[in-house]
Amino acid sequence: MSTQILRPNGVGAETNIAGQYPTSGEHWDKVDEATPDDSATYVRHNLTSFAIDTYALPAGGGVGDIDKVTVYARCYGISGNYNYAKTVIRTHSTVYEGTEHNLISGWEDLST
């Protein structure tokens, strides 16, 4: 079984996360790095409800069936704040949400 890593390369169907740093460019170019740059680029949502961003991905180069999709995210929590995150996969107009994670404090790597 081969593995392909697909990184965001464009805007997806939803852009609902309120903020980004830096303010130039698009949300997807803040989350496409192979090595995390942490506070250098990020998307940010400060409300007490979830907001969804989806991102376009390049076409996979594989042949055959897809057996598994894993989404990885690097998230930051601030102690005492509403700090929850979850991953989302959107395919064929259907959104699949991952497990809600309570971010305690600092950077955390999530996967679903």
Automatic annotation (TrEMBL):
<feature type="region of interest" description="Disordered">
    <location>
        <begin position="1"/>
        <end position="29"/>
    </location>
</feature>
<protein>
    <submittedName>
        <fullName>Uncharacterized protein</fullName>
    </submittedName>
</protein>
